[in-house]
Amino acid sequence: MDTLQTMKIFVRVAQRSGFAAAARDLRMSAAAVTKHVAALEARIGARLFDRTTRSVSLTEAGRVYLERCMECLQAFEDADASVSELSNAPSGRLRVTAPIDLQRHVARILGRFLDAHPRVTAELQLSNRPVDLVHEGIDVALRIAPSLEGQFIARPLATTHVVVLASPLYLAKHGRPRKPQDLPAHRAILFSEPRPRADWVFERDGKQTRVELTATMLTNGGDALRSALVEGLGIGCCPSFVLDGELESGTLEQLVPEWTIVPPLRLFAIYPHRRFLPPKVRAFVDALRDAFGDGTHDPWSPRSSARPRARRGTAAVGRAG
Fold first, then answer.
1. β-pair partners for 94
2. Dihedral (C-alpha) 7, 10, 15, 16: value to the nearest 10 degrees?
3. 220 CB-near residues (< 8 Å, 6+ apart)
4. Is the peptide bond before 263 cis (omega within 30 degrees of 0)?
5. Domain 3-83 indexed as CATH 1.10.10.10
């Protein structure tokens, strides 16, 4: 069987969570789709789907293989598009959505992008809640999550580490926690969207411990959370992209620095899977990767040096979780 065709069939079954639905999309019989997947499983020696009478879901091996398949398929599409779109300059309205606290980072990149592509106009929507890309007509969405799974193309851009912070004012008044188990005794300021998260997992030397914080204040805005921390209202778990030099200036101090909050969050650019991406989308995703990287680097960390040049061609399939 044609390996590329079999990979496409496998991906469509994963995206549609069913053999019959994938068969309809591909204009094939369900039996033919099943045959391709069975042959693929036999060739690689692993079960890719868990099947019941009511549902089809990816196994752990299936999730890993799906990500690699998407990388391969995207590379083929990029190769074709790199030739066919040479004469097509990016143009039209580009609709982008991003979390509220990425606005200063994204707006800067978008401004440079529009200067470079005068035939493109842009609309930037800010929301911490996942947006239905197809229903809302979004071209590119920026999502922050530990990982993604689902029916969209997801290109990793950056890693953002979460750290526990407090101001010298708060620490002088309430004392400094020395280990994660000390944190629940303190007042906590937490993010409320996309969903409140009060329990955190810390890791040190391969050992993990989970703690649950009690929220004194919830907010969906990083500026508000950062300001509340600076004012000494409590401690808080804050991603690196929200900070603006507070650690370097000493306005905020990192707590329990020997412990790492896991898993780290990652920034993804996602867009609906289309065989031929509009030049404006492809060019903007490239601009994001040139600015941020390939997903392995935290460009906002105080310890970061120069940002790495983006590597192209890495894609996964994803939906914000």
1. 122
2. 140
3. 100, 128, 191, 192, 193
4. yes
5. yes
Q: How many CB atoms lie within 10 A of CB 269?
A: 25
Cα–Cα distance, 119 to 105 (Å, whole number): 22
| 10, 170, 222 from 62: Cα distances, Å | 9, 48, 36
**Short-list 76, 48, 53, CA closest to 64:** 48
- Please state, rounded to an integer, the average pLDDT across all residues of the chain: 85
Higher pLDDT among residues 146 and 122, named by residue: 122
Question: What percent of the chain shows pLDDT beyond 70?
Answer: 88
Range with lowest mean pLDDT among 40-54, 135-149, 283-297 = 135-149
* Residue 306 confidence (pLDDT): 37
How confident is the model over 106-117, as a mean pLDDT? 95
What Cα–Cα distance (Å) separates residue 77 from each residue in 112, 138, 272, 277? 26, 21, 14, 9
Q: Domain residues of the chain, as ranges?
A: 3-83, 87-160+266-320, 163-262
pLDDT of residue 315: 46
Among left, alpha and beta (phi > 0; psi -120 to 50; other), residue 58 is beta
CATH entry 3.30.710.10 includes domain 87-160+266-320 = no
Fold: same for 87-160+266-320 and 163-262: yes
Query: What is the gyration radius of the CA atoms in the chain, in angstroms?
Result: 22
Q: Which CATH architecture has domain 163-262?
A: 3-Layer(aba) Sandwich (3.40)
